[in-house]
Specification:
metal ion binding; 4Fe-4S; 2 domains; disordered N terminus; DNA polymerase, domain 1; TIM Barrel; 10-stranded mixed β-sheet; metal-binding; alpha/beta; two-stranded antiparallel sheet; rRNA processing; rSAM
């Protein structure tokens, strides 16, 4: 393949700073913020219970707080972060994609998906993305800015509120799983992503009390950040968007490969699995006549096998959800089957991801792009 590589953007452009929110603060910082408002520190626990137990984020409704302080509390620590632009449903209501507008007009997407025994939220970590993968709608739109810790966390609160209000038929309780596979490269916004994850796993009443094992962080291969994640001591699931087993092709379709090559990325992923005892997911978007040949399946098996026992890795094949007007499209079913059979013959654990949401601009960035074009 030949083509002109788009520039990679690792630093988000400077834009208006998001307003500070309760979700930007850890447990101790919340108590300090409350003290600055002239309230006793124990009030922070009361507020936490409103937010994390009752899923309330409007300070006007915190009726166990002094009435005169609720307005100031709302202005200082509970500004409105997400404004719903549009919402689309498919799969008999089991998949709900929401487009949100932020304080500065930036757009982000989140997708809530109900399965028979769980409810999963796919969330965004950036408005746009700077990784410039040519088959991805978000990557082609470029990076607008990093999301704040609170803007990431607010997507989870909104999803739990949607479940509670019956937006997703059949979904009950709270979210079971969170996947950082929406807009943006999570590892390029590492501090905010990890801050939000700590809120997700913090036991109640100071957090959502989720299991770290039910949170997946994806990356296209920022090797230093994978190493940093390895040191965090959290049993998160790491998903590496590899998409090609050879440097020649991956340089073209995943431009970050020009900085960190396939072997470096896979080595970092293997070390993560070795240290955390958590199986790594290798994400592989199947693109017709680009990366779906049997010989590439053979090469992928060899690349993974060099790192040791198969227990460390699982390959997740993804039928490409094509962007309208793009030359990048999904593989033929026969080529998918041949690719899977090749990996299985080599003993590589592999599954084909269930695709959802094609009729609602389901691929990452498509809904934001279509709404921007309409505007």
């Amino acid at each position: 393949m030949t083509g002109t590589l788009l520039p990679l953007v690792f630093e988000a452009p400077r834009r208006g700073k998001p307003p500070q929110h309760w979700f930007d603060l850890d447990k101790e910082a919340r108590a300090e913020a409350i003290a600055k408002l002239g309230l006793p520190r124990f009030r922070a626990d009361q507020i936490n219970r409103h937010v994390f137990d009752r899923l309330e984020d409007d300070a006007a409704g915190f009726t166990d707080l002094p009435a005169g302080l609720r307005e100031e509390l709302g202005e200082q620590l509970f500004p409105r972060l997400l404004e719903q632009v549009t919402q689309r449903h498919t799969d008999d209501g089991g998949t709900v994609k929401t487009l949100w507008k932020l304080h500065d007009g930036s757009l982000l997407e989140s997708v809530l998906m109900r399965y028979p025994n769980r409810t999963t939220l796919c969330i965004s970590s950036q408005a746009g993305c700077g990784m410039a993968c040519p088959f991805c709608a978000t990557g082609q739109g470029g990076l607008k800015r990093n999301l704040s810790q609170a803007e990431i966390t607010a997507q989870v609160l909104a999803a739990d509120q949607q479940i509670a209000s019956g937006v997703v038929p059949g979904a009950t309780g709270r979210l079971n799983n969170i996947v950082f596979m929406g807009m943006g490269e999570p590892m390029a916004n590492y501090k905010a992503v990890m801050g939000s994850i700590r809120t997700f796993v913090e036991p109640g009443p100071a957090g959502f009390g989720m299991s770290a094992r039910n949170i997946t962080v994806s990356t296209v291969g920022l090797v230093p950040q994978i190493a940093k994640l390895t040191e965090e001591g959290l049993p998160l699931t790491l998903a590496v968007s590899l998409h090609a087993p050879d440097d020649e092709l991956r340089d073209e379709i995943v431009p970050i490969n020009n900085r960190w090559k396939v072997d470096e990325v896979v080595d970092a992923a293997w070390e993560y699995a070795r240290r955390t005892k958590r199986r790594v997911s290798i994400e592989y978007a199947m693109m017709r006549d680009i990366n779906d040949q049997v010989e590439r399946a053979e090469l992928l098996a060899r690349v993974l096998k060099r790192r040791g026992d198969w227990g460390w890795v699982h390959v997740n094949l993804i039928p490409l959800n094509p962007t309208p007007g793009s030359k990048w499209t999904a593989s033929r079913k026969a080529d998918e089957r041949a690719f899977i059979e090749t990996l299985e013959r080599r003993g590589v654990p592999v599954t084909l991801r269930d695709t959802r949401g094609q009729e609602i601009d389901g691929a990452c960035g498509q809904l934001a792009a279509s709404v921007s074009q309409e505007a």
